[in-house]
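In response to a reviewer's request, we include the raw inputs and outputs for one of the modeled complexes. The two entities were modeled together in a single run.
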Amino acid sequence: MTALQEFRTGDTPLPDIVILTHKLTRDYTMGAETVRALRGVSLQIRRNEYVAVMGPSGSGKSTFMNLIGCLDTPSAGEYWLNGQKVSDLSDDELARIRNKEIGFVFQTFNLLPRANALHNVELPLIYAGLSTKERRSRAERALARVGLADRMTHKPNELSGGQRQRVAIARALVNNPSILLADEPTGNLDSTTSNEIMDVFADLHRQGQTVVMVTHEADIAAHAARVVTLHDGLIATDKARAA
Amino acid sequence: MPFYEAVRLALQTIRAQKLKSAFSLIGVFIGVMFLIAAVSIVNGMNRYMTDKFAGTLIGVNTFHLRRQPNVNFDVPDSTWRAWHRRPRITFDDAAAVTAGVTIPVMISWFSEDRGEVEYNGKVAKDIDLQGAGDQYFAIKNLSIAEGRPFSAQEAKAGLPVAVLGWDLAQKLFQGQDPVGKMVRIHDLPYRVIGVVAAQGNLFGISLDKFLVAPATSPIQRDVNPPRVVDAVMVKANSEAEMNAAMDQAEGIMRARHHLRPAQDDNFALETSAGVLDFWGKINRIMLAVGPGIVLVSLVVGGIVIMNIMLMAVAERTREIGLRKSLGAKRRDILRQFLAESAAIALLGAALGIAAGVGLSLLLDAVTPLPAAVAPWSVGLGVLLGVGVGIIFGVYPAARASRLDPITALRQE
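The model returned the following structure tokens for the whole complex.
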């Protein structure tokens, strides 16, 4: 792996850099006190990397994930996603970025209970403004990619935990996002199912998908090619695993 | 998100939560139902009053000369007492008017009171006993079903002959031919010479329970003090001629009552326009009260919807967070919840319209109240429904759209 070029304010990231954060800071005001959740995180992630972000609770990894996922805006610093500076975009522009560039996978799956698998996967496409026909065919393809071609009309409560998480992964993939952003994706699953989901992630990574996964479990993080550890709002370690 | 997606989503949610939706639309349902039913009744009454009531009571191009108006509403006691101090209309007044009006008109004296009619031991109670002239039948447009009306000679001579209303004839004779039979009023015999065809009812009161005999026949003692009539009925060929005849009658009566120019009439000239004027007063009261009730139920309905929508937003906070994380913009969320509240309200309005129309038809069928659905009230119902849904949906929807996705997603 070639060394990453050092980024300075005013630069633009290299074309193969999907995620670039530069001195990313996030402060929360809680009454009179200011909590510094992130204290200047600079990180670059190339296209088709598989990165795990680790750290104990309070290390700032959730805050970091919210910023990477464009759910939150930084107090200071820059965030470039896929060549676009997103750290100073408005709410609605961030919504568009989330829709086009980011695929979320949550610990609790977050599927709509009343909708079947197909409709759950179609959801991001509705906000992208696609036609009913186009939505359907893309949702079907995404479900087939995670091995659920025969479960499309099932509702979440008719599916196992692993299957539910696969539906959520299909939903995350359906817009062909720049990054797949997973937040403790195996936190609600047993170890067998966890491994299954990790296999899905490995497959997607092999197919060229950039994956960023936040976890506190070392054995899950071990599936990633690169592990970044946060501590007290700063990067403590950033290690590539021998392939 | 396109508009139809929001509507589809709203209908899905409503279908998934049938009971809750049913409760939330009840206020709008009642409001719109009341609106439709009330407007139908007012509308039907309006039509009824113009078509039937005024026509039956007084008739087209007709005026009544009376001591006081026959149709009145909310008259203060002092006015009543003033009316009762007025002189009655006498036979001589009636004769003077009959002789004095030069416009070509039909004229009939008229008096009435309630009384009993007896035939062969059977007694019909609460019958409208009427004393009238021979032109009474033509003025009132009464068609004769059997026999004949009494003639001018019979009227002038005051012969004890009687023409019966349809219901009275049925009650006393039960299918026999009444013509030629003798009925008794206060033990005095009257020969039945005809029966008037059925006229139906007015507000549930039968128009066919009457007996009419010449005004100067012995019936005069049953209906009024000696040589007094209730009214002189005058029917002209046109409205202009009626007004001219009314002026003449007024002049004759003022002269007979020795009224100075500055004094008001101490008698009444009543036309169907006057009756409709009276109806207009009732109508205005209904139109003043009606919208109040509709408004109150719609506001209550709107508050219920707002409450339910606020609950829905609280319940579905996670869903809202999820939708936002998947790329829903503020206006997408706003539109979703607005569509939902509007759909609930519209559904309530639609059901309210159906129930209101049904209620109107039912009222029309089983009660004497006439009801006719006004098309504009249906349009207004739809408009009010959607309006309530949107107005009271704005606040919950705005709250939903402003939710922070991170906190929303973290919500249990």
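As requested, we also summarize the result in words. The radius of gyration of chain B is 32 Å. Chain B touches chain A through 21 residues (CB under 8 Å).
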